[in-house]
Amino acid sequence: MRIKPTRQQLLGLLPERLVLVRGPRAPGAPGALYLSFDDGPHPEHTPRLLDLLARHGARASFFLIGQRIEQHPALVERIVAEGHTLGNHSYSHPLFHRLSLREQLDEVERTDRLLAGFDRSGPHRFRPPRGVVSLPLLLAFARRGRNLAYWSYDSLDYQPHPPAELAARLQRRPPADGDVLLMHDDSDCAAQVLTRLLPAWCADGRSLRALPAVVA
Ligand SMILES: [Zn+2]
Predict the structure, then answer these.
(1) Cα 22 to ligand 1 centroid, rounded to whole Å
(2) What domain count does the chain have?
(3) Is there a contact between 10 and 164 (Cβ–Cβ < 8 Å)?
(4) What pLDDT, in 10s, does the model give residues 50-69?
(5) Which of 54, 85, 60 shows the shortest CA–CA distance to 183?
(6) Which domain holds residue 128?
(7) Domain containing 178 — which CATH number?
(8) CA of 27 to the centre of ligand 1 (A)
């Protein structure tokens, strides 16, 4: 029987400079965990999440949508001021497989320019909407020395599961050292899940980190 590898397993075979799936590990148990939030900033849910992260001294990476950056610039300033890192999640969150390569790169570059206005760095890691990546985009990123940022643990917070169920799943199968946890800040689900998990993770000594914004 042939077992089809997952997209994450295939992407994980590529050099980390091109595709990041896991973050740097921390020696010793229980290790580092990289929280990442897509689809913000959101005027209601992002501040709630930032309050929660601050209470626990946790850092995270926010993969922002350009249009929403333009709508809520003060929130982006707050994300940076509180020690989190910014990532690029396209300008309008389109379905990338329906765009030409030029249109895809326009989405990326337009959002890069916005992000640089907040943290003065770049080019930022790019997480494609719904994780859709084509070979031409991958090659264009390789040529430009740019980084695609994926995840190694999907919280499933965009599916209609009760937050308590998602939290229980994360407790049953805890993220490993260096895992990048995919979550979203355009609903209150992530905050509800993390309210249940952060106290225990912190008590266990987990290091909750942000991914470096740019590739060293
Ligand atoms: Zn998204």
Answers:
(1) 18
(2) 1
(3) no
(4) 999 999 999 999 999 999 99
(5) 60
(6) 34-209
(7) 3.20.20.370
(8) 31
